[in-house]
Structure to design on (1210 residues):
């Protein structure tokens, strides 16, 4: 699958393997970066993109494999080593010092010095020159914090020029830029490409990837899937490579989900024009009793952003929410919980489990929080909840008194599901509940969701695995580039159709009946 | 083996070792004598003198569990001592029980207000705990000095003196006070859900928020509790000397309290806390203090020993030392850049890695 | 994309103000401290009539030279986002150590380097704990506080008089400029301020200090020497503690193990009032000097009024609170921006 090319690669990474406790983050990945190209690294969450970048920038040491820059084998023990080899990185969260001036950020560590120390007029003069070479005319003495993220990214790129970078890594630089800002960034990237800089580009926006890249490498689950010239890789093929197909061993669940939903009455949830500036364009969503609505779209498409607004985890600045036809003000998670909405975050570690507490404590946390601290759940009440869900969800080990941090990801997820179900929600929002867990646990969770929905629970289900979405939902809302672009009926569309719908650039709305 | 893993094993072992060393060095250390139906001797003294630190450390435990810290406890003690003694000194009859009760109630109320103030700065304004409580640490002693008019107020009041110097059934009143307070706090934390919710907020604030926990109230409450307990400690301390010495009352006690909490096995990073651990920690600190004196070291020099203890404790808790320990037992290739300092440390690096690889 | 264009036509006065406030927003807290200082001085003059006399103002510096030196060291630490609680007891330790060595006949040219080295050693201990063992600065410097205080008492339990000529000369000599005077201790304090300001503004080390305070992770990813710098700021603070021990010994003519109890809080307050952000990244050595002058002025006004000295700490506490809340608002605003 590897593309032949005349130009020898500037960076050659071969057989890169990095293991974290319990996870093989990269498994023998090869990656080549050539001078004067924009090379996009593609993959879903957990594919290994960030890990590969961190290996190349010296943040992580590699367990095996080799990295060569300009034909010379290198070992990076720190970011300074990588920088010395001519590799500079601009991260999504701009890694500059917002408290310092623009000029100083460009020159930090490389300030021209006179006899009395740093020559500040020279610092700002040189910084202005570097910025001007990228077409930027800024007041270099103004604090960086006063500028937009877009400008800060361009400042970071200027800094890379000071370091005479031969390789520039742009890790999701466009995720918080508007259209015009992206254009300006692309102009700069094209100029650098002309100068022979090798650019590694990561973005979740397919349009942008196709607009700027020369070449694409796809990773999935820590493995290399393929390297292609952009012109030779249709979008559908790219999305298929990124998402993969898993063997369909779960058709029973599909049958359970194959139900007719009565959409004539008042929906359980009706969100109208819910949005937040710079996060999500106003979107509508209705969920009826017993219905599982899937949100499909790539990472960064707005799927997570939408449900966080519905739950009050982030505050919406537009739109209204109704539960059972009654207006609901949801400004904080507690308000949502009072309205019997439950939300399981995609970040299991940072926003889900309370690692040092036991499985039982994690399960009852939500119910207890709702009750207030004074009325502690009695031992019997706790045991009732814990026993019921340990059994119903098959949590392993079956000991509820071990810290949840010691469980596997799949079992942690089951405990979190139990936490939310114990609160008897009417609407359950699950964001990537099956990510990074083993197939068995995955099936258990899907089965449970289908079963609960059949009993009348309304569910919003987000997953990167589109087959899973098609399998257990009765309706799929599709998002792309931070807006909702349409809804589909999963019985009338197959995986290819869904992929096609997510991938395509035209923004025409499509309706359920197609 | 399970005994070794119990969270109270190492704190208890440290305390036991300390006592054994003392007894070997001087068998009289553990000697208890009976006089007029009351018990006297070093162990009894330790139990009595632990009272102020015990109360302060108890409050500190709750604050630390929320990922906070309360530096103002010493100053609150000074204020509370000053308030109660000034009321008694100004009263026509300092010996009357009514006056003493009024004095104590007022002092505790003032301490409660001061604790609420700290909690307001931290939980509502969102100021870093160290900084927020620094304000009162700085100004509190000034307020105490104003209350006493700059002098060291001394009073003679039998009921007030009884608090710290009196005896009830064989043992000092101060001992019964701290035992009662420990029991009450333990009951409130562990019989209601407060303890678990406090730990949840301390371990993972964001997950707790998403689970609907009212973290603001819990954090605020911890600072109020810390203020009230410091207030009671101030009363016991003032009763011990029968003087309101605003400069020296509770001097450095915030630091000893933090040390006691850490010795008891509660991490400064917040989360799981152990009241029993703190009790053991406080007894260890008081015993160590007595030991140092017992070996003929002037009390003023004891901070050197405490400095050594602090360094040992933080090193034992340090991720880098843990890693050294692990690599001693199981050689493995090192991750992470040298410049990063804490970077290779398992505790700090794992979450970052998981996030990016997730 | 709103790029500010540099070569705009003919800037008006209003534009200049805007450019200044845009570029130098971080100076505003320090300017506020200057305004407070001026108001205090004018108010005191109006109240007492003889406050702004050269004698009195000269004494402000003389009486607080040690505080100024400590504030310079503390500024380095706080700008990295750390804190150093040990400075008061380090000052006491080095002071009593020096006095005791002098009393036993050690020559002064040995004593002074030993005092400085003693301070730097405790600073190094703190820095290593913070950087290499991930100990919170608060706790590490707490160990330093205990150590310094205990060692001071180990050296001597009571005060030791100093009769060494060169040491006393530091305090007794008065260089007169009209009715103004300055002592060698005052000159040392101002020299330390000047050196601190130059290091912070004009060296790569100084800029790394700011970068760490802005974002330690960014500083590391930018390839700056974060580890060395973080240890070094505590060494500098310890060194300043040692020097302050010398100045205080000269000032009081004796070493005393109880010196400097609670001084760390005064120093932190002065630094914050002088406009340094406790969360790190912003602050000026010259601002800390202003902060010390504010402290000194409040102290002097209170003794002029014959009021309780405890008012000093209450007022300083209130000022500290005011500055912290204002800083919090500033940080919240800049958070929203980015």
């Amino acid at each position: 699958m590897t593309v032949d090319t005349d130009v020898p690669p500037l960076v050659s990474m071969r057989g890169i393997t990095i293991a974290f406790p319990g996870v093989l983050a990269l498994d023998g990945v090869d990656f080549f970066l050539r001078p004067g190209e924009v090379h996009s690294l593609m993959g879903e969450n957990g594919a290994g993109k960030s890990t590969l970048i961190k290996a190349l920038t010296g943040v992580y040491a590699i367990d095996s494999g080799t990295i060569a820059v300009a034909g010379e084998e290198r070992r990076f023990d720190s970011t300074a080593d990588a920088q010395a080899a001519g590799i500079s990185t601009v991260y999504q969260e701009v890694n500059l010092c917002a408290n310092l001036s623009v000029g100083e950020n460009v020159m930090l560590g490389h300030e021209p010095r006179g006899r009395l120390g740093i020559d500040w007029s020279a610092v700002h003069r040189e910084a202005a020159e570097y910025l001007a070479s990228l077409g930027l005319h800024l007041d270099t003495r103004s604090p960086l914090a006063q500028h937009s993220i877009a400008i800060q990214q361009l400042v970071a790129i200027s800094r890379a020029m000071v370091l005479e970078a031969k390789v520039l890594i742009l890790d999701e630089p466009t995720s918080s830029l508007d259209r015009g800002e992206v254009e300006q960034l692309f102009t700069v990237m094209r100029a650098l490409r002309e100068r022979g800089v090798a650019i590694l580009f990561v973005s979740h926006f397919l349009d942008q990837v196709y607009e700027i890249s020369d070449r694409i490498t796809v990773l999935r689950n820590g493995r290399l899937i393929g390297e292609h010239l952009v012109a030779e890789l249709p979008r559908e093929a790219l999305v298929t490579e990124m998402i993969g197909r898993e063997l369909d061993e779960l058709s029973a669940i599909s049958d359970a989900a194959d139900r007719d939903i009565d959409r004539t009455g008042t929906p359980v949830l009706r969100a109208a024009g819910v949005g937040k500036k710079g996060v999500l364009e106003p979107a509508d969503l209705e969920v009826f009793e017993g219905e599982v609505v899937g949100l499909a779209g790539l990472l960064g498409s707005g799927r997570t952003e939408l449900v966080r607004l519905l739950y009050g985890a982030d505050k919406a600045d537009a739109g209204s929410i109704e539960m059972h036809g009654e207006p609901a003000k949801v400004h904080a998670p507690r308000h949502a919980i009072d309205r019997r909405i439950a939300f399981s975050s995609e970040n299991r570690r940072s926003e889900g489990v309370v690692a040092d507490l036991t499985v039982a404590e994690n399960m009852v946390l939500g119910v207890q929080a709702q009750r207030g601290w004074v009325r502690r759940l009695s031992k019997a009440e706790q045991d009732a909840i814990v026993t019921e869900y340990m059994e119903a969800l098959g949590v392993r080990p079956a000991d509820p008194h071990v810290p949840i941090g010691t469980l596997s990801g799949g079992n942690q997820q089951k405990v979190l599901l139990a936490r939310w179900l114990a609160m008897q929600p009417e609407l359950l929002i699950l964001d990537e509940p099956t990510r990074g867990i083993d197939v068995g646990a995955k099936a258990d969770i899907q089965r449970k969701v289908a079963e609960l929905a059949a009993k009348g629970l309304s569910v919003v289900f987000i997953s990167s695995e589109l087959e899973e979405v098609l399998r257990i939902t009765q309706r799929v809302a599709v998002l792309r580039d931070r807006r909702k672009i349409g809804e589909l009926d999963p019985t009338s569309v197959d995986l290819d159709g869904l992929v096609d719908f997510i991938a395509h650039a035209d923004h025409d709305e499509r309706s359920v009946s197609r | 083996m399970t005994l070794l893993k119990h969270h109270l094993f190492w704190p208890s072992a440290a305390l036991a070792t300390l006592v054994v060393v003392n007894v070997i060095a001087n068998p009289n250390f553990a000697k208890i004598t009976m006089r007029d139906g009351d018990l006297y001797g070093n162990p009894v003294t330790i139990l009595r003198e632990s009272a102020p630190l015990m109360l302060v450390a108890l409050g500190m435990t709750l604050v630390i569990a929320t990922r906070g810290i309360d530096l103002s406890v010493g100053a609150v003690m000074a204020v509370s001592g000053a308030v109660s003694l000034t009321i008694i000194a100004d009263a026509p009859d300092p010996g009357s029980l009514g006056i003493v009760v009024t004095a104590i109630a007022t002092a505790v109320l003032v301490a409660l207000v001061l604790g609420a103030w700290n909690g307001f700065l931290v939980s509502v304004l969102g100021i870093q705990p160290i900084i927020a409580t620094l304000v009162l640490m700085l100004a509190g002693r000034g307020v105490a000095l104003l209350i006493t008019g700059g002098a060291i107020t001394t009073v003679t009041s039998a009921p007030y003196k009884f608090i710290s110097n009196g005896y009830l059934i064989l043992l000092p009143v101060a001992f019964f006070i701290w035992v009662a307070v420990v029991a009450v706090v333990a009951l409130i934390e562990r019989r209601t859900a407060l303890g678990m919710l406090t730990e949840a907020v301390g371990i993972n604030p964001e997950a707790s928020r998403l689970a609907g926990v009212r973290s603001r109230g819990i954090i605020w409450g911890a600072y109020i509790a810390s203020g009230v307990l410091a207030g009671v400690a101030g009363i016991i301390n003032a009763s011990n000397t029968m003087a309101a010495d605003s400069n020296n009352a509770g001097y450095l006690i915030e630091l000893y309290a933090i040390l006691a909490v850490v010795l008891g096995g509660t991490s400064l990073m917040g989360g799981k806390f152990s009241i029993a651990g703190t009790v053991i920690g406080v007894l260890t600190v008081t015993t160590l203090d007595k030991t140092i004196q017992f070996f003929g070291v002037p009390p003023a020099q004891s901070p050197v020993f405490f400095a050594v203890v602090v360094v040992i404790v933080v090193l034992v808790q340090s991720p880098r030392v843990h890693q050294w320990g692990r690599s001693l037992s199981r050689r493995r290739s090192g991750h992470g850049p040298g410049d990063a300092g804490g970077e290779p440390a398992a505790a700090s690096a794992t979450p970052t890695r998981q996030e990016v690889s997730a | 994309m709103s790029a500010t264009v540099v070569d705009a036509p003919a800037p008006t006065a209003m534009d200049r103000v805007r450019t200044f406030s845009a570029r130098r927003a971080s100076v505003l807290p320090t300017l506020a401290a200057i305004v407070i200082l001026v108001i205090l001085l004018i108010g005191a003059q109006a109240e007492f009539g003889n406050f702004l006399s050269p004698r009195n103002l000269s004494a402000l510096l003389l009486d607080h030279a040690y505080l100024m030196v400590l504030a310079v060291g503390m500024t380095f630490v706080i700008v990295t986002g750390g804190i150093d609680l040990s400075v008061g007891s380090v000052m006491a330790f080095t002071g009593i150590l020096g006095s005791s060595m002098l009393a036993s006949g050690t020559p002064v040219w040995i004593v002074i380097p030993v005092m400085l080295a003693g301070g730097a050693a405790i600073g190094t201990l703190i820095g290593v704990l913070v950087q290499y063992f991930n100990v919170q600065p608060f706790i590490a410097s707490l160990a330093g506080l205990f150590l310094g205080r205990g060692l001071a008492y180990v050296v001597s339990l009571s005060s030791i008089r100093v009769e060494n000529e060169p040491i006393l000369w530091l305090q007794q000599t008065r260089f007169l400029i009209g009715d103004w005077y300055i002592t060698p201790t005052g000159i040392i304090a101002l020299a330390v301020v000047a050196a601190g300001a130059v290091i912070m503004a004009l060296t790569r080390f100084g800029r790394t200090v700011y970068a760490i305070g802005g974002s330690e992770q960014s500083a590391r990813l930018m390839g700056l020497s974060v580890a060395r710098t973080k240890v070094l700021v505590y060494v500098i603070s310890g060194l300043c503690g040692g020097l302050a021990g010398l100045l205080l010994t000269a000032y009081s003519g004796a070493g005393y193990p109880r010196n400097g109890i609670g001084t760390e809080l005064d120093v932190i307050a002065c630094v914050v009032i002088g406009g340094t952000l406790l969360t790190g990244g912003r602050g000026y050595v010259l601002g800390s000097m202003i902060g010390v002058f504010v402290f000194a002025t409040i102290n002097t006004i209170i003794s002029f009024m014959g009021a309780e000295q405890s008012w000093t700490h209450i007022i300083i506490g209130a000022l500290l609170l005011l500055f912290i809340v204002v800083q919090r608002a500033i940080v919240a605003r800049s958070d929203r921006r980015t």
In short: The CA atoms of residues 124 and 150 of chain B lie 34 Å apart. Chain B touches chain C through 52 residues (CB under 8 Å). Residues 322-357 of chain B form one domain.
